[in-house]
Write a structure and sequence with these properties.
Blueprint (H helix, E strand, L loop, with lengths): L7 H18 L3 E8 L2 E7 L12 E3 L6 H8 L3 E3 L12 H4 L4 E8 L5 E9 L7 H32 L4 E6 L4 E4 L2 H6 L5 H4 L4 H9 L8 H4 L31 E4 L5 E10 L5 E10 L1 H12 L1 H10 L3 E6 L5 E3 L1 H6 L11 H7 L5 H7 L21 H10 L4 E9 L5 E13 L5 E10 L1 H23 L3 E5 L5 E4 L1 H7 L3 H4 L13 H13 L5 E8 L5 E12 L5 E10 L1 H23 L3 E6 L5 E4 L1 H6 L5 H7 L9 H14 L1 E10 L5 E11 L2 E8 L1 H12 L4 H7 L3 E6 L4 E4 L1 H7 L3 H5 L3 H4 L2 H4 L2 H11 L1 E9 L5 E13 L2 E10 L1 H15 L9 H18 L3 E8 L2 H8 L1 H18 L5 E6 L2 E7 L3 H17 L2 E3 L2 E3 L3 E7 L7 H17 L5 E3 L12 E3 L5 E3 L1
Parallel strand pairs: 37-38
Antiparallel strand pairs: 1-2, 1-6, 2-3, 4-5, 5-6, 7-8, 7-11, 9-10, 10-11, 12-13, 12-16, 14-15, 15-16, 17-18, 17-21, 19-20, 20-21, 22-23, 22-26, 24-25, 25-26, 27-28, 27-31, 29-30, 30-31, 32-34, 32-37, 33-34, 35-36, 39-40
Helix pairs in contact: 1-4, 13-14, 19-30, 32-33, 33-34
């Protein structure tokens, strides 16, 4: 039915009717669908809101079928009031897409074929009234009547245009009704076929007479139309009757032209479906070559057979009179046989033809209705019928044919053949008496054509469904093709962008560079390009994109156009900028710290990171030289000291306040106090130069006489107490720092002085002192006013007047703790919202993922993205955006449990991990969170700002090996929530064996719905 062409005016009239019909009935979709192999395509669709159908869209036949498939199958109207109540349609693709009501009519052609359907769809239950049904029925009848007229006219014209002969149709009034394209060419008339229609036959005869040796012979070559019969000439042929009928010439009349060519003329009387004559059809075939060939064939038939046998094409000769069928040796060789391996008979060759191609082959042989009787054979089975008769009537008069079909090879495979044949002689009834032809192996060409078609179909599918933008530019920089994703990205319709110059959508600063790259691609001086460009949105704003471009080369090897793939990286760049700002703040703290901070590799002691203080402490000045040459393993004064440090690190995962004597670059030695943690195969640590402190301690040990002076002059608080916990002495620093008098402190115990969380450890520490002799640890003291003071205590068990006592030096480490807390806060929290940053979120989430996998516990991941957040920034500024982000975090924290993990991934994107949470609880928590954000009111500048959030949700399934597996599904569900209208929770599709219901979607109101 591809030859049926619907005119623009007809399509415009139908389009207007569809739009009116959809608005009148109050439905989403009104469309006319056209049938094609494998499914349906949209011919026209109403321009109504929510209509997903667009002209040209193809809908493949799917499992379970669609509403339209049921109409075509039944050949009569189908009405579905509510698919959700109908078991047949409840799980159909259309119901899952949300279209639950349907009314469809088949569009039938005069010969009974189904051209397509008239479809009416809606997303709600739709009981049409009798008036509405009457309106739809009237429109359906008008469409079918127009289709019938177009079909009959197209079929009659197609029949003539496909004839290999020149055809002239004349009505009973002697007026030319139609001439096919071959008629003026064959006769050599200087006029096109269309201009001959409507002229009197006498004028055409005058043009043709000039081409004859004797112009007077034109009456014999082209007689006037036969006498008009009763019924009038106004009737026209119908598609059901084929357009011809009655009698015609049984043989051909030769017509000699002045240029030496010979034409064979035949004619038929044309009758309408009622049997009334309305005109004549004159057919002319150039048989010059045939006449000359027959003569030449008679003179050298044997010589011709030898030549054909040596050619690359197979040759065959079939004599219908004798039943003899000759096949050249090449025929056998092409199929893998030895020449003569099987007898070349009609039955043998028929068995080799692919069953699906038999109808085409039999039709091409031009065997008349009733079959062909060959001596020694019965009537040829399968070579008769109405279809073959129509081919004979329309094409066999020219005496030649061409057909493509498959033949089975000896090894059981199939080869495509191109068969060309010619009728050399006919019987008195017009049927072939002798036919000759050739077979050419075209398997490679057919395979290439099919591969090309598949490739083109794949390209079209990728182009239309890709999530990234794709554009095709011609050599002038005009956009030839634009996919929907690109148009949506920039806020346009595809029709608005198509045909525009690419510079219209580029930032003016980047247009010259883009033009140069396009010129290089088209000139093939550059194979590909990938750059980040700013593209102009329809609203006037700009968005950052990643554009990859490459040239497209045509079959002739020349560059025809350029293809560009466009990815939106606007949010990515914003997140990258935020990350860079955070890294910059971290670096500032790192470099300005008054303690040495470093990261070394355990295996060889190489410094991977070092701040300025640690470099200075080792006596180096150049950072690059320090990182290149410095190895921690080589600078220990005591080589075994590093082994003790590593042993403690590997045993407990950390070490604290370990004092080690180190060698500086100039050869001098210093004492460092190290604290560090294990981080993979590296050590992350902090170092202080305690050389002076150790020297002071050594001096105090060497001079007991200076004990009191040193005791009171020390910068740190010093406590002397017995192993029972009674203070024996304290220095002035301790009194001043803690706010007590000396007498008050001596009446207290270490248990009373320590903060609550450390008080219970006093007894344990005294026991360790008895075992180890000295101890360094961190604690906290409570001052008189209740303030908690963090301290680092160096305790040593001494012999004092013959009894064991504990000397404790407590250093105020408030500044160091603040620095450590600042470093930890900067490394793990988001500076704006105070919740986990991206790095810490993944650390905590991966830990819980491992626990859930190990113990088989439920775990849910939520991906959150604030809807239209950019509008708030653009309208009110980034301070307003920050206020909204803070409000959103507060709403999330109030909606989630303390055990849940919440983090900011960047920009307005957040993620949460819900522990020990199954599907129902997760859906309830996600909806509670969504509603909290929706109801949130953020005061800013005298206004109240509001925002909504889209949430994608995924549950851990048995097949999830890593957190990324769940995050990808949750992210995909988030984008589905965005596409579905935002401000909603969307559940991700389940993995194999998962618990999620892939047909379940969570709406903004928290009500699950199908589709």
């Amino acid at each position: 039915m591809d030859f049926i062409s619907i005119g623009e005016r007809t399509q415009a009239r139908w389009q207007q009717s569809l739009d009116t019909l959809a608005r009148l009935l109050g439905i989403r979709v009104a469309a006319i669908m056209r049938r094609h192999p494998g499914g349906l395509s949209v011919l026209l669709a109403s321009d109504t809101a929510g209509n997903p159908l667009v002209p040209g869209m193809r809908i493949a036949t799917s499992a379970g079928g669609t509403y339209c498939d049921a109409v075509i199958e039944a050949g009569q109207p189908v009405y579905v009031q509510n698919a959700l109540d109908d078991p047949r349609w409840r799980d159909s693709p259309m119901a899952r897409a949300g279209f639950v009501a349907y009314l469809g009519y088949p569009l039938l052609l005069p010969d009974g074929q189904v051209y397509g359907t008239l479809c009416l769809l809606d997303t709600r239950q739709w009981p049409p009234s009798d008036v509405h049904r009457s309106i739809v029925s009237d429109f359906h009848g008008q469409v079918e009547e127009t289709l019938a007229l177009i079909y009959e006219n197209a079929l009659f014209g197609a029949q003539q245009d496909t004839l290999p002969s020149a055809a002239l149709t004349v009505d009973t009034r002697g007026v030319v009704a139609r001439a096919n394209r071959r008629f003026p060419k064959l006769w050599g008339i200087d006029a096109d076929a269309a201009s001959l229609a409507g002229r009197p036959l006498a004028e055409v005869k005058a043009l043709a007479a000039a081409r004859l040796p004797d112009p007077a012979a034109i009456d014999a070559a082209l007689p006037d139309a036969p006498a008009r019969e009763t019924g009038g000439p106004s009737a026209r042929p119908s598609a059901r009757s084929g357009g011809t009928g009655g009698t015609g010439e049984t043989g051909g009349l030769p017509v000699q032209l002045a240029d030496g060519r010979v034409l064979r003329r035949t004619f038929r009387t044309l009758r309408d479906e009622h049997g009334r004559v309305w005109g004549s059809l004159w057919l002319f075939e150039d048989v010059t070559a045939e006449v000359r060939a027959q003569e030449a064939l008679r003179r050298s038939e044997e010589r011709l057979k030898l030549a054909l046998d040596a050619a690359s094409e197979a040759h065959w000769d079939w004599n219908f009179e004798t039943g003899e069928l000759y096949c050249s040796p090449r025929y056998y060789e092409m199929l893998g046989y030895v020449p003569g391996e099987f007898e070349c008979t009609h039955d043998a060759l028929r068995d080799l033809v692919h069953p699906d191609d038999m109808a085409d082959v039999t039709a091409a042989l031009c065997v008349p209705e009733g079959g062909v009787t060959v001596p020694g054979l019965s009537g040829l089975s399968g070579l008769s019928g109405p279809a073959v008769a129509r081919v004979v009537a329309g094409a066999c008069g020219v005496g030649q044919f061409e057909v493509q079909f498959r033949l089975r090879t000896k090894d059981g495979g199939w080869k495509w053949m191109l068969a060309r044949g010619r009728v050399l002689a006919r019987r008195e009834d017009g049927s072939p008496a002798r036919v000759v032809g050739t077979h050419m192996d075209i398997t490679a060409a057919v395979s290439q054509r099919l591969a090309l078609a598949r490739s083109e179909e794949l390209f079209r599918g990728i182009f239309s469904t890709a999530s990234v933008g794709i554009v095709l530019l011609d050599r002038f920089g005009l956009l030839v093709r634009v996919n929907d994703a690109c148009a949506r990205m920039l806020g346009y319709a595809t029709e608005e962008m198509r045909g525009q110059h690419f510079s219209r959508f580029m930032h003016e600063e980047e247009t010259p560079l883009a033009a140069t790259i396009l010129a290089n691609l088209l000139a093939r001086t550059q194979d590909a390009s990938r750059l980040q460009h700013r593209l102009r949105h329809k609203d006037g704003g700009y968005l950052w994109t990643d554009i990859s471009a490459s040239p497209l080369v045509g079959p002739d090897g020349e560059v025809e156009s350029a293809l560009a793939i466009i990815t939106d990286i606007n949010e990515q760049r914003a997140a990258q900028q935020a990350q860079e700002d955070s890294e910059r703040r971290y670096r500032a703290l790192f470099e300005n710290a008054q303690v040495g901070i470093f990261r070394t590799r355990i295996s060889d002691g190489r410094f991977l990171e070092a701040n300025a203080r640690i470099i200075e402490m080792y006596g180096w000045t150049d950072r690059a030289e320090f990182l290149d040459k410095m190895r921690a393993t080589e600078w220990y004064v005591d080589p075994e000291a590093r082994g003790r440090v590593l042993a403690a690190l590997l045993h407990r995962g950390e070490f604290r306040n370990v004092e080690v004597e180190m060698r500086r670059r100039d050869g001098s030695t210093v004492w460092f106090e190290y604290s560090g943690k294990l981080a993979g195969d590296t050590i992350v640590g902090v170092a202080q130069d305690v050389t002076q402190r150790r020297a002071a301690e050594a001096a105090r040990q060497r001079s007991e006489a200076h004990y009191r002076l040193l005791f009171e002059a020390a910068a740190d608080a010093i406590f002397l107490h017995d192993t029972e916990g009674r203070f024996l002495d304290v220095n002035e620093v301790a009194c001043r720092r803690l706010g007590y008098t000396r007498r008050e402190l001596l009446d207290m115990t270490p248990h009373e002085l320590d903060a609550v969380e450390f008080a219970e450890q006093v007894g344990e520490r005294i026991q360790r002192l008895r075992e180890e002799g000295s101890l360094t640890f961190e604690s906290a003291h409570r001052t008189r006013n209740g303030t908690v003071l963090p301290v680092e205590i160096h305790a040593k068990l001494l012999d004092f007047d013959g009894r064991p006592v504990v000397l404790s030096i407590a250093r105020d480490i408030t500044d160091r703790k603040r620095l450590e807390q600042a470093l930890m806060r900067e490394a793990t929290t988001d500076p704006l919202t105070g919740i986990r940053n991206r790095r810490q979120f993944f650390v905590d989430a991966e830990r819980e993922m491992g626990r859930a996998t190990r113990y088989g516990r439920p775990l849910t991941v939520l991906m959150l993205d604030l809807d239209r957040f950019k509008r708030i920034n653009d309208r009110f500024g980034h301070h307003a955006g920050d206020a909204v982000l803070l409000g959103c975090v507060q709403a999330c924290q109030q909606s989630l449990r303390d055990t849940d993990i919440l983090g900011r991934l960047g920009g307005e994107e957040f993620a949460a991990v819900l522990l020990e949470t199954d599907l129902d609880d997760a859906l309830a928590a996600a909806e509670r969170l969504r509603r909290a954000v929706e109801e949130m009111a953020v005061p800013f500048g005298g206004q109240t700002l509001r925002c909504t959030v889209s949430i994608g949700m995924a549950l851990r399934g048995p097949g999830d090996a890593a957190l990324d597996d769940i995050l990808r599904r949750a992210d995909s569900a988030l984008y589905s929530a965005k596409e579905a209208g935002r401000n909603r929770v969307m559940l991700a599709r389940a993995t194999n064996g998962g618990m999620e219901d892939q047909n379940r979607r969570w709406s903004s109101g928290g009500v699950p719905r199908n589709g």
